[in-house]
Amino acid sequence: MKQRIAWITDSTAYVPDELRERHDIHIVPLDVIFEDGTYEDGFGLSPEQLYEKIDRAQTVPTTSQPSVGKFLKLYETLADTYDCAIAVHLSSRLSGTYNASLNAAGMVDFPIEVVDSQIVSYPITALILKGIALAERGVDFRAIAAALREEAAKNENYIVIGSLSQLHKGGRLSSAQFFLGNLLQIKPIFRIRGGVVELFEKVRTESKAVKRILEQLEAARKKHRITEVQILHGNVLEKALELKESITARYQDIHVLIGPLSSVLGVHGGRGTLALTWTNEPREQE
User: Which UniProt keywords are given for this protein, alphabetically ordered (predicted)?
Assistant: First the structure.
């Protein structure tokens, strides 16, 4: 008999409603904290409202991880229905969410595997989907969690920051850097490696930044099997669609998914942010 596995993640993952309902994925929200109050990520604020509030705010809103108590309450409830659970969370080096989930898991008489995705957004969802496929084949939940931890290291991603003002207000750019960056139309490209955000390159203009991340996709494709890429955007769907068109025109065998950045990620990247991410699979599997 197959194990009844509960799947849990946090709100930084991009999980479309249809996918969430079909697989009964439980999402624990982080909080976005503005001067006028606290909002649960994914609830109460549309992407348009979020960026309008960010633009008007004098200080950068902050974000907060879910409490241990919030996870504990969920796990106690799931124990009544499921045999076990697998929770996949954003990088433990970017947030305390993973540790809060892990601590709560240790407080209940219910077997739970907690997986550090080492990433954020849709790659978390991709891991969950791979886990669900393994579960449907009858693989034990502990073996599934172990496989997902190995799979997490295969992700490659590039993030073109949409708003230098957001970095400036958040203290990541000095006033001089902010002024010079705007003057020269600097677009920093970041990536997440080993669970940590690092600067990949600084380029002039957004078009050159997009060209650069497409070059990285081409380089990765020469070495790995890539069947799907994900484009995440900060309330700029039209730019995401343009990027998709560039990819599909060149690679007919790559499926492209588009989705919005969560509120928590939008707070840090700002309106206009574009991210391109994929999984590098070994070619010998072809």
Answer: Lipid-binding
**Tokens 């969560």 appear where?**
262
Determine the Cα–Cα distance for residues 67 and 61; give it in Å rounded to an integer: 19
Kindly report, residue by residue over 34-47, the tens digit of the pLDDT. Answer: 888 888 887 777 77
Q: What is the pLDDT of residues 255-281, one digit of tens each?
A: 999 988 877 777 777 778 899 999 999
Reading the block at residue 108, the tokens are: 């209940």
How many structural domains compose the chain? Answer: 2
Q: Which of 137, 158, 77 is nearest to 112 (CA)?
A: 77
Distance CA 106, CA 112 (A): 8
What is the rounded distance in angstroms from the CA atom of residue 17 to the CA atom of residue 167? 31
pTM of this structure: 0.86
Write down which residue in 152, 172, 199 finishes a domain: 152
- CATH at residue 228: 3.30.1180.10
